[in-house]
Amino acid sequence: MALSPDGLYGAQRRQRGSEDDDEALRTASARQNYISRKWGSQAVPGMIYFTQTHQWLRFDGNIACTGISDYAAQALGEIISFETHDLGTRIKKGDVIAVIETANTVEKYHSLIEGEVVELNSILDKTPGLIGSSPEGEGWFVKLRIEALPDTDAENFIHRRVYLDMVASALAAKLGKAGS
Questions:
Q1: Domain residues of the chain, as ranges?
Q2: Rounded to an integer, what distance in angstroms lies between the CA atom of residue 169 and that of residue 167?
Q3: Class (C level, CATH) for 43-179
Q4: pLDDT score of 178
Q5: Do residues 89 and 117 lie in contact, with contact meaning Cβ atoms separated by under 8 Å?
Q6: What is the rounded average pLDDT of the residues 136-164?
Q7: Residues 6+ apart with CB under 8 A from 93
Q8: CA-to-CA separations, 131 to 74, 95, 123, 143, in angstroms, rounded
Q9: How far apart are CA 75 and CA 131, in angstroms?
Q10: What pLDDT digit, counting tens, does each position of 92-124 carry?
Q11: Burial class (CB in 10 A: 0-12, 13-18, 19+), 172
Q12: What stretches of the chain adopt beta strand conformation (E)?
């Protein structure tokens, strides 16, 4: 059983009781740096990692499942259609991996990593709304077989708590500007 990021640094902080550790955990970026410094950038199987582009990856061995965050899905609104690549397609980092059409826009999502499409979420063909109702669960896009995760990519993947802090800060800033 993998520990959550809170479990990892919470246990470490309680054990050591260091004021430096407490300070390091106060901001989202500091928390991510602290986690990376203490435990490296290795992906924990089954844990969802987010990006600043509101996408996520979940690793299971050399298979990476990908999708968008709940925040991104809610921002899209009603989803009308979903398109992705065929099985066996080789995807490079940065290639368009999915296209989502809503009532107001068409959004393209770019692959966060390189790999081969080994599984499609075929349910999305008939029920694209699952992306909106279960974006981090049944609304996943594709699964890619990856050879390795370059360290430079791993640095861009953030844990849920850090991601949620980032979203909360962005929303607070947006609300602050709206109230001005």
A1: 1-40, 43-179
A2: 5
A3: mainly beta
A4: 64
A5: yes
A6: 84
A7: 111, 112, 113, 114, 153
A8: 9, 20, 10, 15
A9: 12
A10: 999 999 999 999 999 999 998 999 999 999 999
A11: exposed
A12: 48-50, 55-60, 63-68, 79-84, 90-91, 96-102, 106-110, 115-120, 142-145
Tokens of 96: 């368009």
Contact residues for 60 (Cβ-Cβ < 8 A; gap 6+): 45, 46
d(Cα 95, Cα 112) in Å, to the nearest integer? Answer: 8
Phi, psi at 78, each rounded to 5°: -65, 125
Place of tokens 């979203």: 167
Flag whether the pTM goes above 0.85: no
Tell whether the model's pLDDT for residue 23 goes beyond 50.
Answer: no
Q: What tokens appear for 142 in the block?
A: 């594709």
Q: Which two tokens stand for residue 116?
A: 């081969």
